[in-house]
Amino acid sequence: MYEKYVKILKEHTLKVTSPRLEILRYLDEHHTHPNVEEIYSSLKKKHPSLSRTTVYNSLEILKKKRIIQSLTISGSELRYDIHEGLHHHFICTHCGTIFDIAITCPNMDRTLYGGHRVEEVQGYFKGICKKCHTKEKRRNNNG
Asked: Domain segments of the chain: what residues?
């Protein structure tokens, strides 16, 4: 169950710890771009001795090693995403859900051509997700 995450940690020369394994598993299974409090609250149920500080520190080292990424889409709140290559995000202004969008950056080739190494791309779109848009249309048609 954790072999995949053990391999990731070892490939990045990180010590394999229970909190790191749990955080990776959580982010891999929940593509909801949770904040630190959501991660902590969820993991705390199963691991009562887990501290907020441990979660913060684990997230920081995983981010530093580029295994996960943090997003600041709204205000100053950090949200976390298991690193799955360069991609963009869409945030619904109605329900707050954040979706991954698999599109390429049109300027990537020019950036790479200049001899640069791109390690992170932060692109996001804001609008109304399909689910909220459908609800809104129904309300307007019935109202």
From this structure: 1-83, 85-143
Q: Tell me: the pLDDT tens digits for 105-129?
A: 777 777 777 777 777 777 788 999 9
pTM of the complete model: 0.77
- C-alpha distances out from residue 61 to 5, 12, 119, 140, Å: 14, 10, 16, 48
> If phi over 0 gives left and psi between -120 and 50 gives alpha, with beta otherwise, what is residue 13?
left
pLDDT level of residue 132 (50, 70, 90 thresholds)? very high
Fold category of 85-143 in CATH? Dna Ligase; domain 1 (3.30.1490)
Q: Which of 72, 73, 70 is nearest to 92 (CA)?
A: 73
Residues 6+ apart with CB under 8 A from 76: none
In whole angstroms, what is the distance from residue 79 CA to residue 142 CA? 36
Q: Which amino acid is at 143?
A: G
Asked whether this chain's domains 1-83 and 85-143 adopt the same fold, the reply is no
Q: What is the DSSP letter of 71?
A: E
